[in-house]
Amino acid sequence: MATEIIEIKPKLLGITVNVNELWRRLRRELPPASRVAQRFLELFQEHGVAPAQIQRFLPQVTLEHLSPDRLGAVLTNETLDQAATLFGVRREWLEGIDEQVYENLSCYKAPRYFFEDLARWQIKPQTFAVRALCCGELDYTSQQEQPLALVVVESIGSLGDKEVCRYRVYRDAWDWSYLPCRLQLKAFARLMHFGWQTPVPLHRVQRRVLERIHAGRKVPHFELRGCLLTEPSLEDFALSEDESRQAQETDELASVSAYVERHRLGEFSRRWERQASGDQSAPSETPG
């Protein structure tokens, strides 16, 4: 059943306007060229880049192209490819064909894929490269659903003191109340802590926002801003009291270590340690 723009309700004033539906319809009715131009500008704005700053990343899009009647002329096949690649988004979204910003990306029950993908995506380890989004406090004793989204972040440039990043959103149905999900996430966080020596910030967002990010329909830029030294961070749920003053759920640590061992994930951490030290051959031991 189609969603109505005008809704008649018995309470309040009786008639309301569904602004979201109105905006969706207006966007659908835009000419194709205008729709692409609108998405192109939206892509940069959703990553914290103002229209006048686009030329810092795509020099061919100069200030004279920013008027509505001239932007379409510079949005060639090459420019659209460059923009989609720059921010890691789907070309179909950029062209206004659909609403899915990101490709499907999954690593549940495939933890080695996550680290292999991370190595391909980021040539050198970056601080706060992996971040998590949740709706509230995490509590492994609760049976209520506790959804999370896992995002890999890569810096692609800067504007003054502001970092510009692109994102890879893993669309697995992570749920902290479900033990297999929880152990995998804890293993990821523990290895990031010891291998890349970086925290995994834990950001809280509204559930409806998390659902849109999890569905690959929203750029998580604004949700990942702010202080990155969160309390707790995700790794605090995977460290002992000797390893973190914020350590939580420590009675599952043995299970986390067993998960790392079972999936042979320690080799990734050792590889990062050798890379950081410049030694490509000497093995090292990594806490399980």
Description:
The chain has 288 residues and is α+β, with helices and mostly antiparallel strands. 36% of the residues lie in helices and 14% in strands. The protein is built from ten helices and six strands; from the N terminus they run ββααααααβββαβααα. A four-stranded mixed beta sheet has the order 5-4-3-6. The protein has a two-stranded antiparallel ribbon with strand order 1-2. Helix 7 crosses helix 9 and helix 7 (179-196) packs parallel to helix 10 (266-277). The longest helix is centred in the middle third of the chain and has 18 residues, at 179-196. The chain is elongated, with a radius of gyration of 22 Å. The N and C termini lie far apart (53 Å). Residues 11-15 and 281-287 have low confidence and may be disordered.
Task: Give the secondary structure arrangement, pairings included.
Layout: E1 6-8, E2 15-17, H1 19-28, H2 32-45, H3 68-74, H4 77-87, H5 91-94, H6 111-121, E3 130-134, E4 147-159, E5 162-175, H7 179-196, E6 202-204, H8 207-214, H9 253-262, H10 266-277
Helix pairs in contact: 7-9, 7-10
Could you write a compact summary of the structure shown?
The chain has helices at 19-28, 32-45, 68-74, 77-87, 91-94, 111-121, 179-196, 207-214, 253-262, 266-277; strands at 6-8, 15-17, 130-134, 147-159, 162-175, 202-204.
Overall average residue pLDDT: 87
Helix-and-strand structural type: alpha+beta
Output the helix-strand order.
EEHHHHHHEEEHEHHH
Q: Assess the beta-strand content as a share of residues.
A: 5-15%
Major β-sheet profile: 4 strands, mixed
- Low-confidence parts lasting 5 or more residues at pLDDT below 50? 11-15, 281-287
The coarse overall form would be elongated
Q: Helix share of residues? A: 25-40%
Task: Please work out how many helical segments DSSP would assign.
Answer: 10
The end-to-end distance, rounded to whole angstroms, is 53 Å
Strand arrangement, largest sheet? 5-4-3-6
